[in-house]
């Protein structure tokens, strides 16, 4: 009985700290691949995976983007996670993150938005439903050099009371990027990259989208 109680206690402790080190850098996904169930122990929309089982599902508009210097189509660089991939959306309301088991305390991330501001809203229910627990207004950031316009990243985080099951990362489609999303911590744990003040354009290379998106 004592061993059983100790085991249950350990499970409880692990559950209470489960998200303290859960960070999503979007590495392992392909260029413009929907994130989908990759962080739910499943696969991205193009078959990448299986990814780590964090119990996190991303909405259909949520796409991984690899920077052009690594063979992708993104005007991105200097990713805070140290890799070559970040998170964007090209249509819809934004990147929707669902965590069915819920997460508490807060969360943090980096974003780059040289041309238009954005926002993040945290909800108590899945798919942006229930009670609004927190709201973050995301101011514009400086632009990086041409070809890496989205290479200056701003760390930001928020704390909240209660249990959240979803968050919506919003802004102007194709003009805001996110990276290093961490559950259970209200401040990013990686250093902020150096900044360079120059002009640029949209996130995704024009050739990849057949001129659908024009330069800013």
Reported by name, the CATH topology is: Jelly Rolls
Distance between the termini: 66 Å
Radius of gyration: 18 Å
Unreliable stretches (pLDDT < 50, length at least 5) are: 1-20, 191-201, 206-216
The amount of beta strand, in percent, is: 25-35%
Structural overview:
With 216 residues, the chain is mainly beta. The chain has one domain: Galactose-binding domain-like (Jelly Rolls). It is 7% helix and 29% strand. It has 1 helix and 11 strands, in the order αβββββββββββ. It has one helix at residues 2-16; strands spanning 22-24, 56-58, 63-66, 85-88, 95-103, 106-112, 118-123, 132-138, 154-159, 164-170, 177-183. It has a 5-stranded antiparallel sheet, with no helix packed on it. A hairpin with an 8-residue loop joins strand 7 and strand 8. The chain starts with a helix and ends in a 33-residue tail after the last strand. 44% of the residues are buried.
Give structural attributes:
single chain; 216 residues; mainly beta; Jelly Rolls; five-stranded antiparallel β-sheet; 1 helix; 7% helix
What's this entry about, in short?
The chain has one helix at residues 2-16; strands at 22-24, 56-58, 63-66, 85-88, 95-103, 106-112, 118-123, 132-138, 154-159, 164-170, 177-183.
């Amino acid at each position: 009985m004592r061993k059983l109680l100790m085991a249950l206690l350990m499970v409880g402790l692990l559950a209470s700290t489960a998200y303290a080190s859960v960070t999503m850098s979007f590495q392992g996904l392909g260029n413009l691949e929907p994130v989908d169930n990759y962080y739910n122990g499943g696969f991205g929309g193009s078959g990448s995976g299986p990814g780590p089982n964090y119990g996190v599902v991303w909405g259909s508009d949520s796409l991984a983007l690899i920077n052009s210097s690594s063979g992708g189509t993104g005007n991105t660089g200097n990713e805070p996670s140290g890799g070559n991939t970040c998170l964007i959306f090209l249509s819809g309301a934004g990147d929707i993150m669902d965590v069915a088991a819920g997460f508490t305390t807060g969360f943090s991330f980096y974003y780059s938005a040289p041309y238009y501001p954005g926002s993040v809203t945290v909800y108590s229910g899945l798919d942006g439903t229930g009670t609004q627990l927190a709201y973050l207004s995301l101011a514009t950031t400086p632009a990086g050099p041409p070809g890496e316009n989205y290479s200056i990243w701003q760390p930001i985080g928020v704390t909240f009371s209660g249990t959240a099951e979803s968050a919506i990362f919003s802004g102007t489609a194709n003009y805001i990027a996110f990276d290093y999303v961490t559950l259970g911590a209200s401040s990013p744990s990686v250093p902020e990259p150096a900044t360079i003040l120059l002009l640029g354009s949209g996130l995704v290379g024009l050739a990849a989208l057949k001129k659908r998106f024009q330069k800013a």
